[in-house]
Amino acid sequence: MTDLYENQRTMRRMRKQAMDRGVIAILDVGTSKIACLVLRFDGPDRFRGGEGVGSLAGQSAIRVIGAATTRSRGVTFGEIDAMQETERAIRTAVTAAQKMANVRVDHVIACFSGARPRSYGLDGEVELHDSQVSEQDVARALSACVVPDYGPGREVLHAQPVNFAIDHRSGLMDPRNQIGNKLAADIHLLTVDRSSVSNLIHCIKRCDLELAGMASSAYVAGLSALVEDEQELGSACIDLGGGATGISVFLKKHMIFSDSVRIGGEHVTQDISKGLQIPLSRAELIKTKHGGVVATGMDDREMIHIGGETGDWEHDQREVSRAELIGIMRPRVEEILEEVRLRLDAAGFDQLPAQQIVLTGGGSQILGLDELASRVLGQTVRLGRPMRVQGLPQAATGPGFAGAVGLCLFAAHPQDEWWDFDIPADTYPARSYKRIVKWIRDNW
């Protein structure tokens, strides 16, 4: 755990150094596309204090000065399966964004989907040495949380304090300088598959870039697609990507649950390709222009020209009704929504006050999806678009860029995590110098 703690703090320091220099890149590695945004941080007071806990809580003025996307290659279910192909795609996106920004970028913050995320709830409690809560008391309370045995081959991606309590008072955002006898903390711990993370880190290093932070796509999509009231009262963000569908649940402005369904928009495209016997590129075009999941009385009479370049005139001149296309797409979309409902039920989503569901991601643009999702999920559903960021090109304002825009907000307004606090000396190994210093202070 100490090695993980130090690795995360190293990335935090890299990010702060890059932000101090004023420029950093955002990299969204998805199954269907790879997006790169170059950010410039304006204003001398980049880390002034704000609401929340920890040294990184603050506000930063950001502006997008470069943006580029390319078709993703070598990524399946949000995980890298062909290193060289993914490396070329990342280099293409980063180079194009740097040319647009007219600046070289050495540090990137990356987000990814898939990797089989798993959520845990941790809690810890400590007695206060002094009646007033200090920064060290917060660190001791976080370190008192018992980490579950999440098994070999797993890596902690996020460890965020979501609640503090002093004596009988709970729901505190920032307990520092408050008076009490006992301090309790609740942490949301998110683990992912270690090999998937290692492959992404190795791929970014092969591109001559330094990794200054990582985040889950479902988490950052929720940051950009959910409005403030939805994050406060309890809402779920469903990020329908190409290879995986991310789920994140927010309450009191913190993510309290995350999961992933290994089905996405590309599976719908594959169903169309197999059902109509056409290439994947043509199936994607038909899905985008004519696709839907809710049939109407006009769909039987609306004919869609299939087209093609096989050389067989009769095969290339085929037409199908839109009702037939909907009949191919709807079962797969229903399967995705049913899997999402099972995971939300397991998370206790029906116990939250608001229970709002927001659909985002490229797959959310299918016509009629919000209506079908409302029937399957049984909750209020709306389509979410990412928040506006200064300088963001018009082409990058759609739901498909919710992850990239959310990563911009994640970089500018970082939520404090476990490793943003100095780890107490007594949790270091026995030969640690800090532990020796603590013993001398306590005994001399």
Automatic annotation (TrEMBL):
Gene3D superfamilies: 3.30.420.40. This is Cell division protein FtsA. It comes from the Bacteria. Keywords: Cell cycle, Cell division, Cell membrane, Membrane, Transmembrane, Transmembrane helix. It is a peripheral membrane protein. The lineage of its organism: Bacteria, Pseudomonadati, Pseudomonadota, Alphaproteobacteria, Rhodobacterales. SUPFAM superfamilies: Actin-like ATPase domain (SSF53067). GO terms for cellular component: cell division site; cytoplasmic side of plasma membrane.
